[in-house]
Amino acid sequence: QVQLEESGGGSVQVGGSLKLSCAASGRTFSSAAMGWFRQAPGQERELVAAVSWNSGNTYYADSVKDRFTISRDSAKNTGNLQMDSLKPEDTAVYYCAATYSGRSRPPRSKFEYDYWGQGTQVTVSS
Is 67 within 8 Å of 4 (Cβ atoms)? Predict the structure, then answer.
């Protein structure tokens, strides 16, 4: 069984940065396709960024392109989301997700992911 745990959330002012991490236990993260989703109150959970299992392909939502960077640290068995130039509309609970289905493209649907973390709150204030 795979367990994911996010960390690094918090409160930051507009224009600031945060780095979210997702620690995996039970299986190595290096062979997983990984995604970061977010959900604001009253809204659907949306994909922010995703990376294929071999890290060869990435996907970013238009709203975060050029501001967020998804990566993985195989040595620490973690996935990361570096968030720069944060905006109030980035405020949400952020979730990491993983699947070991071996897809060569970054999964974009929440239904393609098998494992989820519990979420971490990110609040951006002006």
Answer: no
Residue 26 contacts by C-beta under 8 Å, 6 or more apart in sequence? Answer: 1, 2, 3
In the predicted model, residues of the chain with pLDDT beneath 50 are none
pLDDT digits 0-9 by tens, 16-32: 999 999 999 998 888 89
Cα distance between residue 23 and residue 27, in whole Å: 11
Alpha carbon distances (Å) from 12 to 7, 83, 88, 113, 125: 15, 11, 9, 29, 6
What the block records as the tokens of 46 is 């949306």
Report the pLDDT value the prediction gives residue 103, as an integer from 0 to 100: 72
Q: 68: how many CB neighbours lie within 10 A of its CB? A: 20
d(CA 31, CA 54): 7
- Rounded Cα–Cα distance for residues 124 and 126 (Å): 7
Kindly state the DSSP code that residue 110 receives in the 8-state scheme. G
